[in-house]
Design a protein that fits this description.
With 240 residues, the chain is of the alpha/beta class. It has seven helices and twelve strands. It starts with a strand and ends with a strand.
Length: 240
Amino acid sequence: MAVGREDDAGEGRGLSAELLAARWNSEYRAGRYVAERPLPFVDRILSTLRAHPAAMSGVGLYVGCGNGRNYLPLVAAGLTLHGLDVSREALDQLIARRADLKPRLTCADFRDLEIGSPFDYLVAIQVFQHGVQADAESYFAKTAAMLKAGGLFFLRVNSASTEMYLRHTIIDRNDFGGLTIRYDEGPKSGLCVHFYSRPELLELARDRFQPLAGPREAVTARTPPKTGSWSQWEAVWQRL
């Protein structure tokens, strides 16, 4: 895989890859995800791939693989899975755990990635929410371009029904009920994060993917003394 920018690659973006990388480098240095168990969505990914043996025996891309919380269980299941992340710190931690995986790992912004041949499946867990509405559109378009016809797309992203906890400013809303906020405090201070509605996801997928499962909303109560709940959509699509 290679990284390259066209002359207008930054136009229409609400996300600075440099700022995002800096924030996540700090998070990973502070121990983010080191002791956390894989998400249950990993089991859904594996069960779906087992039902599609051609994809499972092929080559996949995990966008936002981090330090391996969900990536390593997928590799352990026998997948030929490349990992991509903007955080150099996250990938260094992952390589320290599994040095043999280094050739599969790339430090880059997904939107700037260039590939020689399309993938059989793509995994994006809690990463396609970074940026504004224009970024959301680019994520889906780029995913469709990177998958073979019939390729599988596994997605988990923020839901607009999330009860916001940290101080923030609303940047944009769309007619489908999705919205973007800029965090004004906390570890993501200064970052724009998009929260999707179900109709918005279906619209972004239309003419690109057919649904295999979901979108299903997973709701998680925050640990006290924090209040409210955090919600994510989980979906599996197949490239048209």
